[in-house]
Amino acid sequence: MQLSCNGVRLEVEVHGPDSGEPLLMIMGLGMQLVAWPDGLVEQLVARGFRVIRYDNRDVGLSQPFDALGVPNLPLAALLHTFGLPVKAPYQIADLARDAVGVLDALGIARAHVCGASMGGMIAQHLGFAHGDRLKSLTLMMTTSGHRSLPKESLKVRRVLLSRPKPGATTAQKFENVLDHFAHVYGVIGSPGYPAAPEALRARIAAVVKRSHRPQAVTRQLVAIAADRHRAARLPRITAPTLVLHGEADPLIPVAAAHDLARRIPGAQLQTLPGWGHDLPEALWPTLAEAVAANAARSERS
């Protein structure tokens, strides 16, 4: 369903009974709500949650922001490297206000929040800027963004910044996009839980057919680069927090998880061997149980 959230039209889905504990799921860079696998959502619903997943602004079926143009990504990356201000079409703080808008539109005063990757950055903003709306906070495969943290390898960076090959026909362009994303996910995925190539390609095809907005990814990358002061604000988070991270994450090295857990008062840390930067089916029960256990901490606090 389409809802007006913070003045932005967002696509929102709600799963589970109205009586369930509200759990807001926030996805990462350029990723659509369907990147939260249906099976994982079902596991969470089975644990008593009313799961809310949505497309961030500018992606999926939510309101596009093409009128803002395409920022200069190399310039933004250079400024970010030297700790200089980056001008972005919108900020991570804006995406956090969108998330609050989702809760407002659904009439939810407080919710458990789970964010993955860039979604975890948005969730951090919710924690320190909108803490009164949180029951608990789970941060998956994300980072404080502190400049001292180790970065992804050059190989991973090259793959992330690469683009699909051009195609002479619409069909060939589509196949090239599938090839591109299959390669990306193969590089950043879980070495301990490798995805079956045919199943992965089918999932990618379904996502791309739903929506494909590559320019939005650039805008969101620049928003990440512009978000320079998040780490210093993390001690303000008071919600029971769980940091969940893969020990084999090639995109955001696991050191970022240890850093987050140190910065957030009372945060718990859980790292999983073999887990990369994806959501493999074999880990759905473990992830759902971890989210539920952290949510239960809010009832005891």
Blueprint of the fold:
Layout: E1 2-5, E2 8-15, E3 21-26, H1 38-46, E4 49-54, H2 73-81, H3 92-105, E5 111-116, H4 118-129, E6 134-140, H5 154-161, H6 170-188, H7 197-210, H8 214-226, H9 230-233, E7 241-246, H10 255-263, E8 268-272, H11 284-300
Organism: Roseateles puraquae
Pfam family, one: Abhydrolase_1
Keywords: Hydrolase
Outline of this structure?
The chain has 301 residues and is an alpha/beta fold. It has eleven helices and eight strands.
Structure description:
- 43% of the residues lie in helices and 16% in strands.
- It is α/β, with parallel strands linked by helices and 301 residues long.
- The chain has one domain (2-300): Alpha/Beta hydrolase fold, catalytic domain (Rossmann fold), CATH 3.40.50.1820.
- The chain has an eight-stranded mixed β-sheet with strand order 1-2-4-3-5-6-7-8, sandwiched between helices.
- Helix 2 runs parallel beside helix 8 (214-226) and helix 3 packs across helix 4 (118-129).
- It is globular.
- It starts with a strand and ends with a helix.
- 43% of the residues are buried.
- The mean pLDDT is 96.
- Residues 22-279 form the AB hydrolase-1 domain.
- Pfam families: Abhydrolase_1.
